[in-house]
Design a protein that fits this description.
The protein is mostly helical. It has one domain. 70% of the residues lie in helices and 2% in strands. It has a two-stranded antiparallel ribbon with strand order 1-2. Helix 1 crosses helix 2. The longest helix has 43 residues. The N and C termini lie far apart (65 Å).
Amino acid sequence: MNAVETLAWYGGNILDYALQMLPCMGVGLVVFLALRPFRMARLKRRGLASGARREVALLLFVLFCAGLAAVTLFPADFWRMEHWYRVVRGQEPLYPIQVDWRYQLEHFQSNPLQEIQRAFKGPWVMFLMVANIGIFLPIGFCPAILWRKGRLWKGFLMGFGTSVFIEACQLFLPRSSDIDDVILNTAGAVAGYLLSLPVRGLCPRLTASFQVAETSGQHG
C-alpha cells in the first residue's frame, strides 16, 4: 500500500472502532446525567462548584471511558451491526457464555515485547500497537487536567491498573490477553500525563477552568 492507501486504511479502522464505542457511550451519557444532581449537591456541601467548561470536559471523559469499555470488555465485534444482524436471524448467540480455557491459555502472550517487535512486520499489528498507546492517552491526560493533584505516579497507576483489569476480564471472554497490551496501555497513560504538563504550565488559567473551584463566601 502507498502512503495514501495506508492512511485511508488506518482511518477506516479508527472509524470502525469509534462506531463500536457509541452504544456504551450512550449508556455513559445517561448515567452521567442521572448522577450529576447528586454530584453537584455533594460539591456544594463541600463549598465547591464545577463550572460549565469542566462539566463538558468531564462528560467527554466519561463518554470516552464508556466507549473504551465497549471495545475492551465485550467479545470482539460485539457492537458491530453485522453481529446484531446475525443475532436477529438466529445465526449466532447474542453473547457467547462458554469460555474456551484451552484456547485462552494457549493464546495468552506472557513474553514482554514479543508483540511489540512483531508490530514492525505487519500493518495490522502496528495499528494495534499504535492504538493501544493512543487510546490510553486520555486516561493519563484528562485526570491531570480535571483534578488538581495530578502526579506522574498517579497517571502510571491509572494506566497500569486499568489495563490489568481489562486484560484480566478478557480472560473470561473469547479474546486473547497480552502482557504487551499492558505495557503499551501504561505507556499511553504516562504519555498522556506528560502531555498535560505543558498545558498546565503554559495555560494555568485555562487549566483552572477545568477544575472545581471554591464558591464565593467560603473560607472568608
